[in-house]
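Weekly puzzle thread! Below is a chain. First person to post its structure in token form gets bragging rights.
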Amino acid sequence: MFDKLSEELKAARIRSGITLQQLAAKTRIDLKFLEYIEDGNFSFLPELYVKAFLKEYIKFVGLEEKLIFKKYEASKLGKEYVEPAQETLLDKIKELKENKFEKEKEIPLSKSAPSRPPSSVESNNFFNTLFMDKRNVILAAALLGILVITFSVYFLFIKKSSDIIIEKPYDELVNESKERYIEDEPVKTPSDSPANSTVKNDSLRLVIVASDSCWVNALLDSSKKEEFQLYPHNRKLITAASNFQLTIGNSYRVQLLLNDKPLNFDARTKVSVVYVDSKGLSFLSPPKQKK
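Winning reply:
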């Protein structure tokens, strides 16, 4: 169901006169990830990072961000997004006038009927009708006031914050990751503890130092997996017996140290895949996942 969304994104990019290579240079997103998005493949990385890439894409091709993300969520559920109908304030006022006109038509006017003072029931009906008309006017005024306040808040605060990349749903995920993975300093363990014996068996110690926010998927010795996120001026120590395979997001903000010695890690893309062993570091190409 992502085909229609990817076609809309690609058409917007073409209308903007931007090539994929130019978009990759502007957003600093790897060209392959942009191709996945336009092919309708949104499973190439965890959803948190796919949404961040999609937000960068939308910003440069001139689409409405909230609408595209609504279509993304609908496509994820296998549905097609339909814009809900909205009743305007003018429609509401017109409806109130029609109701008042219908009530006036229900009151019969007879010229031949003798004039008489209104009964208590008729007086009550008159005051009830008058009260309802006043309440309808107050309701219409309240609706108008709510609309004015909403537009004022939007133009004064929300519209000015268009540079924010990740909104509340993503911030909640990031906070969860921060609580789970950030380590300021390694905890010292007794020499005879099981954790210390594991470190002795792992001859390779890799320290990942972040100068900005980044995420890491690590495969240790081709068997053990770790996934974590680092924040500015944080570091993470991981150990292995023979090798590491790392997928690093925001990689140009990262430094790597193997056994306390800096590695020649010169990242040129926003996401990098590298292989590290006792001989040093080598770059790998990210595998293209099937749709």
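Puzzle host: Confirmed. Bonus trivia for everyone else. The mean pLDDT is 76.
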